[in-house]
Amino acid sequence: MSFSSIVILTGAGISAESGVDTFRDKGGIWSKVDLQDVATPQGFKRDPERVHAFYNDRRAGLKTVRPNAAHRALARLEAEFIGSVLVVTQNIDNLHERAGTKHLLHMHGELTKVFCTKCGTHRDEHGDLTTFDYCSQCGATGTLRPDIVWFGEMPYHMDEIHEALHRCDLFIAIGTSGSVYPAAGFVEEAHAIGAHTVELNLEPTEHDSAFDEVRRGRATELVPAYVE
Ligand code: BV8
C-alpha cells in the first residue's frame, strides 16, 4: 500500500518509555489523583494552588526526560516521507518537538505554556506557576493558568484536525487508550473516508475493532519498525 497523507494521533503511551507517566495504566496518574480536582476548570477555581502544584511537578519532570526511539522515528518519517505527515498529540509534554517533529498539533495544550484568564495573553513557562504570579501584559495577579485543555473545555486545532482527517489515506494511533473524546473518535472519521487505520499500542483498547490493523507492543519497537 502506498500513501500520500498520514495523520498520526499519539497519547501518553508514546512517552511512557521516556519515563513520562501515563494516565490509565496500573499506577497511572489518574490512579493517584482525581482528575476532577486537577484537570477541570471547576477544580482550578476550587483550589488553584493544588492545580499549579500538579502541573508544576509535571513541568519540572520535562527536564529529566528525553525523546525516545518512537518520537525520533516519527520525526524521521516526516523528514523523509514524500507526502504530508501531521502528528496530532494528546500529550502536553514537549518530546515530539524535541525529537524534531515540525508539523505537530497539541490538541490538549502544552505544559510549557500558560495564559492570562483576564487578557488572554499566552506565554512560555518552564518553571513553577503560582497564584502570586502576575501577567506581564495586563499586570493582573493570580490570573495565570496552565495552557492545557481540561475536561469540559474545547480541544485546540479541531478544524485543522478534522480537515486533515478528511483528506488522509493513513491514520495511525500510537500509545492511546482511546478513552477521551473527541480524540477517541478520530479513527472512525478516518475510516469513514476510506483511510487505512492502524493502532500501535501495548495493551488492547476499547477501540481495537475500529482499526484495520492492530500491532501490539512497545512504541519504541513498533514505531521504528512500522515507519521504516
Ligand atoms: C470536550 C490534559 C466539549 C490534562 C486531557 C464525547 C464527545 C466529546 C466529549 C466527550 C464525549 N464523551 C465524554 C466527553 C467529555 C470528555 C471525555 O472524553 N471524557 C472521558 C473521560 C469519557 N472530553 C472532554 O471533556 C474534552 N472536551 O469534549 O469539550 C466542548 C464542546 C464545545 C465547547 C466546549 C467544550 C477535553 C478532553 C481533554 C482533557 N484533557 N489532557 C492533562 O494532561 O493533565 S485528557 C487525558 O486523557 C490525558 O491528558 C490524555 O491526553 C488523554 C488520553 O489519555 P491517553 O493519552 O490515551 O493515555 P492513557 O493513559 O489513557 O493510555 C495510554 C495507552 O498507552 C494505554 O492504552 C497503554 O496500553 C499504552 N501504552 C503504555 N505504555 C506503552 C503504551 N503503548 C505503547 N508503548 C508503551 N511503552
UniProtKB/TrEMBL annotation:
Q: Does the keyword Cell membrane apply?
A: no
Residue ranges annotated for the Deacetylase sirtuin-type domain, each copy included: 1-228
The membrane spanning regions, by residue number, are none
Q: Which reaction does it catalyse?
A: N(6)-acetyl-L-lysyl-[protein] + NAD(+) + H2O = 2''-O-acetyl-ADP-D-ribose + nicotinamide + L-lysyl-[protein]; N(6)-succinyl-L-lysyl-[protein] + NAD(+) + H2O = 2''-O-succinyl-ADP-D-ribose + nicotinamide + L-lysyl-[protein]
Instruction: Quote the record's binding site residues for substrate.
Output: 55, 58
How the cofactor is bound: the record states:
Binds 1 zinc ion per subunit.
Q: Which residues bind Zn(2+)?
A: 116, 119, 135, 138
Give the protein's cofactors: Zn(2+)
Active site as annotated: 108 (proton acceptor)
**Keywords annotated in UniProt:** Cytoplasm, Metal-binding, NAD, Transferase, Zinc
In which broad location class does this protein mainly occur, judging by the first location in its UniProt entry? cytoplasm
Q: Which NCBIfam families match?
A: PRK00481.1-3
Q: Which family does it belong to?
A: Belongs to the sirtuin family. Class III subfamily.
Query: What is the protein named?
Result: NAD-dependent protein deacylase
What is the gene name?
A: cobB
